[in-house]
Amino acid sequence: MCADERGLTTGCGGHPRPADRHGKERPFLPSPTFLQVALNGDRIHPAAPRTPTGIAEAASAAVRAGAHSVHVHAFDQAGRETLDAAACAEVLRHIRRVCPHTPVSLTTSATIVADPMERLRVIDGWTVLPDLVTVNQGEPGIIALCELLLSRGVALEAGLLTSDDARAFVASGLGERCRRVLIEPLDLDPEAAVRHAAMMEDIVVSAGISIQQVHHGYGVACWAVNRRALERGHGIRTGLEDVTVLPDGSPARDNTDLVMAAGAMVRAHAPA
Looking at the 3D structure of the chain, how many domains does it have? Predict the structure, then answer.
């Protein structure tokens, strides 16, 4: 089974359900709460996939564990992050082959191509389009990039890393044209991350922007941000790009471990 962006299950190639650490079959996440997995990013971890085949395998396992959407970064032959059209197309084709009903989000991060005009040129050359892209609102040239992607029918996930990003997002007028907003505080301290997530949420909500919110943090702070988001009825993101430990502090084996833990957190916060 696969899950679409609403959390509804659909067919996914007849793969077996994932097992927990003890080999017991785990149920699919029976919840409308949105759960996205970020499979890799620039994370150095044995289970962070970088090849198209590895990314597709990790995506399939994460979706079977309950993820509703997959966020990925593509890599070139030298193992470097890339926005190159051919590399991105290959990753998308591999994922869609194993999970054709799962929305796939690609990064557009300026950490990969720093020059705004060069990034615009490279992304305009994409031949296979993702369902969504993350667009970090604090980056130079981001509005032009958003307009390009919207004109090509790609949905936007507006990334807010700071309160300044949130204010820029509000001022941009992009609000209701985006699929969702990602609240992504960079703080590694859980209390600070939760505080900054609350500030960004307040800026967005006070501006009357009512699109779906998905919250996550980095490192151990990720789980604190996830927990607060669920308490407030928002979606969450997890995955090796964001965090490498489980809520109890033990190491996660892979993305599937993290999705299972996030799913358990979702169920714990579900209405009785």
Answer: 1
